[in-house]
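User: Here's a protein and a ligand (SP5). What would the complex look like?
Assistant: Let me lay out the input and then the predicted complex.
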Amino acid sequence: MLPFVWSDDCLRHEAAAEVWVGVRTPATELPARALAIREALVSAGAREVSSVTHDDSALLAVHDPALVEFLRTAWDNWAAASLPSDRVVPYVFARSELTSGRTPPTPTAVWAQPGLFAYDTMTLIGPGTWEAARAAVDVALTAVDLVANGERVAYACCRPPGHHVTRSLYGGSCYLNNTAVAATELLSRLGGPIAVVDIDAHHGNGTQELFLGRGDVLTASVHVDPGAGWFPHFLGFTTENGAANLNLPIAPGTGDDGWLAAVREAAEFAASARALVVALGVDAAAEDPESPLEVCAAGYREAGRILGELGLPTVVVQEGGYDLATIGPLVVETLTGLAR
Ligand code: SP5
Ligand code: ZN
């Protein structure tokens, strides 16, 4: 009976839309995702554990307090400003070259403030966004508690996802980096090194950059080649690899065999760690609308088995996965492989 951590507050974020190439399209990162996963877990006999509130210490060890404060207040400030958009969205970006590296001032205009912290136009903030993002951090930390107290594997049903968030910038449908918070807390509870293996279809750019140059958290990511035109476009290449970071970009169209070969490499890279965080996106699935990878249910089960074979204390953190009909079963497949 594998434990999974749940919080109703994770349902409170409703992005409503994404702005892509200047066009507002319906959101794909929906509350129904978490409900679909929960339903599949319960049907499979997993044991639901209620999320427990944690203080901000692990969160602030990962993120710039200014990002956290922005996210906490962004919706209220936006709503009070009576703007024509029903969601917080950036329009001008405080790129560091704009100020020759000087710290930009906080703009007096509420509508300019997102440009200090957002790196894309697809990641909108609404009435429940902060509550859900902060709840997802608690879900991840509760799963860490379970593993620190002796469970071999615990699953954190986090939503919204987090792996695209850096120390001070949010994007990619993510607001707070749940995976990085879990890794940081596991490190302080169990000692290092901690390995993060990210099998979401997109590169775990936020997690990579957060732990860059450190030897105590090893990061590996298996993802569709950003050089073939896929988000996050600017990172995820093998040129970023080093002793503590392994990117395994794979070609669009890759199915189980090619994807599992990369997962095996990532697992070998993680083998010497004290504990493991799996950033589990199931958007590499053949059915998923957001990636061109073609992984099947058997592939996810085998990926779980490969990672479970490491025998490490393991926290699994939910990242992406957007096909509502298959995400639940694919999470169950992965956890079944892992927990065997
Ligand atoms: C956590 C995660 O999986 N984030 C993925 C973010 C990547 N989104 C890229 C979207 C690119 C444009 N998609 C067009 C669809 C418009 N609805
Ligand atoms: Zn993804």
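Summary: Residues 287 and 323 are 6 Å apart (CA to CA).
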